[in-house]
Amino acid sequence: MFPEYRDLISRLKSEDAHFARLFERHNELDHEVHNMETGVTPADAFAIESLKKEKLLLKDKLYAVLRKADTAV
């Protein structure tokens, strides 16, 4: 996710607690969705779609923080 911001992501994960929480939650959701889609965790299509929407919202928030931090540098 966002390879062009790899260094900035590393820095923000250690310096910005809010960013770190968002990033961790996004990764948790990614793992949950993967498990649901592969049948490891039982789930219906609605549950998967709901988690994907939450994940997308987090991705948008992460991107906004990255853009703001990138212009501040």
Automatic annotation (TrEMBL):
It holds the Pfam family DUF465. This is DUF465 domain-containing protein.
